[in-house]
Amino acid sequence: MLAAATLIGVPAAPASADDAFYTPPAPLPAGSPGDIIKSQPSRYDNSTATRIMYLSRDAKDQPIPVTGTVFVPTKAWGGPGPRPVVAYAPFTAGMGDQCAPSKTLAGEGQNDIVAIFQKGYIDRLLDKGIAVAQTDYEGLGTPGDHPYVMRLSEAHTVLDVLRAAKRLPAAGLPADGPAGIVGYSEGGGASASAAELASTYAPELNIKGAYAGAPPADKAKLAKSLDGSLYAAFAGYSLIGIQTSYPEADIPGLANDQGKKLFEEAAKTCTLDGMLKYMFMQTKSLTRDGRPIADYLDQAPFDKIVAENRIGTLKPAMPVEIQHSPFDDVIPQEIGKQLAKDWCAKGANVTFDGALIASPVFAHITGAVTAPATAAAWMNDRFQDKPVTGNCGSF
Predict the structure, then answer these.
(1) Would you state the torsion angle of the CA atoms of residues 378, 379, 383, 384, taken in this order, to the nearest 10 degrees?
(2) Lower CB density within 10 Å: C or N end of the chain?
(3) pTM exceeding 0.85
(4) What's the rounded Cα separation, in Å, for the pair 97 and 87?
(5) Is residue 268 packed enough to be buried (19+ CB in 10 Å), middle (13-18) or exposed (0-12)?
(6) Which keywords does the record carry (predicted)?
């Protein structure tokens, strides 16, 4: 959900010379989640970068193609054991295929300031000799809409990009080698979702820890806090996400003409464009009966959808750190804190850092600038086998 707070765009680079890479074979090949469908060299400083398309599963547990990038740093790993790999779950890049991080991080497609923010997380990990496996999530780059902040789809794609990285021969990452997960904002939710589903969906992965910055764990609360705000585009993105993962919700059937237009147009925007276009939008202006979206969430089928997408219902099997600024103006800190409490109540090893350095203005974005250093250091400590006991009961 990270927005380009400074509202500065970087001129777009030419589109990739190989757009056909993002077209999956039809039918999809048989295989297991994490199997690589195809790959091609990409480019990224201080690493050998490989763009991949791999198999994953959507919210209905159906096979889907997903793209991403595997970065192997030129810097050697200096810690114990084989080189570790971290799944990087990107924050909000947008909804259009041109926004896929595997394109923008390589300087292709819609390259704006969001890609620069994404680089901060990857660069900090590469600088420690840690490999990175970045997912585009479902529907970014590949056909179909992106199921924005939908828990099951995003958890699957994050865990499966780790599997894919380990199955990429050029990466040289052993199947049983150490792994981790890092994400902020939308990526924080994806990281948290993957952390709590890992033991059942991908039990073979040796995940040493997961970092979740400003996770959008409770969609019902966000439906109220985002509505009519500077970041109202994210509420619109969420509606597209729900419809993508749960077509039975029939959100277009609830929409008026303005709402239907939003569905068509917002699905093609990247973060900066969407934020500027839809800031201060009120969702009651999108519905036929004039009710805001939050008013629907306690009735069928939305009540079950909200419940299924709440993060914190399962115990993560690995240590987790949640970092969340008290000034966060996109995802209120109380949401991240409640997630930490929910996990603590289940006996998880949780560290909650409620003092993420951020300015009181645009705190969500400025927090994203300071978070990468903490995320990389915390993950590096896990790979160095340093013990962590968490701080449950102290927040």
Answers:
(1) -20
(2) C
(3) yes
(4) 21
(5) middle
(6) Signal
